Amino acid sequence: MSKSPIYTPNPTLDLVLEREIDVPHELVWTAWTTPEHLVQWFCPRPWGVAECEIDLRPGGVFRTDMRSPEGQIFPNIGCFLEVVPQRKMVWTDALLPGYRPAPNPFMTAMLLLEPLSPERTRYTAIAIHKDPETRQKHIEMGFEHGWGTVLDQLVEHIKTKM
Amino acid sequence: MSKSPIYTPNPTLDLVLEREIDVPHELVWTAWTTPEHLVQWFCPRPWGVAECEIDLRPGGVFRTDMRSPEGQIFPNIGCFLEVVPQRKMVWTDALLPGYRPAPNPFMTAMLLLEPLSPERTRYTAIAIHKDPETRQKHIEMGFEHGWGTVLDQLVEHIKTKM
Predict the structure, then answer these.
(1) Left (φ > 0), alpha (ψ -120 to 50) or beta: where does B43 sit?
(2) Residue (of B148, B115, B146, B155) closest to B18 by Cα position
């Protein structure tokens, strides 16, 4: 059987944030996959995480409901598709837990961690959309600034609290 | 970590075909996962399969384009989500190959094979929908008769050609 990569990058449909960060990849993985850690860095402040559930296996729930500064809740629920501990996770909001098709699909996302040294990590986060319009909407929602700010918060969280 | 089943049956959202059939589960698996076999039984005749692609791994393509008796082609493409050889496969048209969200999601499907003896198999096929309206539409499209006819064709194919 062909073992070519499952995902093919498509610059007209996807958005990518890639950065080298000076924290160990094991801690990045733990910060992403543990609700007690995730709620502390996952939303660009003053937004916050209202509710987080993580069942880290294909089909398992990944819930990260967001809370606006005014207190409004924005549900954000999907499921994991692939989990390679400390290296890769793929999830989508196109499927609810148990793989049930979701009412309002927006994207599939992929997190890739590559250890560069015991203290440095190449961090790649990819947002995979169905069409150029959805990608453009994500740009206008502030993909680059938002995901970048969140990564700053993640690094700070690891350095100060883990 | 909890190892409860990922999928929770929901009678108001899902449709199920369950039957005991007198063919070995290994041959059912082969007939489902090999394009040369699948094209011979997968559509209720006089419909046929115009094109079949199978990359049997999570995120891999599962294409079964259909051809009407008048020759019209109906594309049918999605990807696999879970593959347990000879026992279980899960796929969806809510995601294209590589997990990209699809333009027109309809369902996730699950095939379960349970060997009852070397020559008998409990065959369970489940269609998982996002809402009761989609389930109702699937009933009106002829789920029960269609999936039942296809199962008859599958058993006949195994008995006469494998």
Answers:
(1) beta
(2) B148
Chain A interface test: which of B100, B111, B112, B131 (most A C-beta within 10 Å): B100
CB contact under 8 A, A56 and B1: yes
Pairwise CA distance, residues B91 & B96, whole Å: 10
SS (H, E, C) chain B: CCCCCCCCCCCCCEEEEEEEECCCHHHHHHHHHCHHHHCCCCCCCCCEEEEEEECCCCCCEEEEEEECCCCCEECCEEEEEEEECCCEEEEECCECHHHCECCCCCCEEEEEEEEEECCEEEEEEEEECCCHHHHHHHHHCCHHHHHHHHHHHHHHHHHHHC
CB B79 within 8 A of CB B95: yes
pTM over 0.80: yes
Complete domains list, chain B, with CATH: 17-161 (3.30.530.20)
Q: Which of B82, B134, B51 is nearest to A79 (CA)?
A: B82
Q: What is the per-residue pLDDT across A55-114, written as a single tens digit (0 to 9) for each?
A: 999 999 999 999 999 999 999 999 999 999 999 999 999 999 999 999 999 999 999 999
Nearest C-alpha in B relative to A106:
B101
B138 Cβ under 8 Å from any chain A Cβ: no
